[in-house]
Amino acid sequence: MKNLFDRMVSYTMEDTKGKFPKPLCSKNQGYVLITACNTPFPFSFLCKQSQGTINAMNEFFKTSGMKKKGVITITNTFGKKCVSKAVLNKIKKISNSL
How buried is residue 72: exposed, middle or buried, by Cβ count under 10 Å (0-12/13-18/19+)? Predict the structure, then answer.
């Protein structure tokens, strides 16, 4: 992910010669973060399994000018082939608000 973000910087932020970068994306553009981990809830939350990834992605998109529309963390994914109804409902709710 870090390499992807490093390569996208020139498309999302203007170089301002030593000052804070100017966002090139519109606040009308939004993003939804979806992460997954093997750790079951509540341990995934207590141990902040996905928090580092979410923080890094939020910072990148915020600096590029986009607005966060939602975050979905799918936990306890080891050996599972489908997503729970609760997660699907959350995805639908976010999708309907876009």
Answer: middle
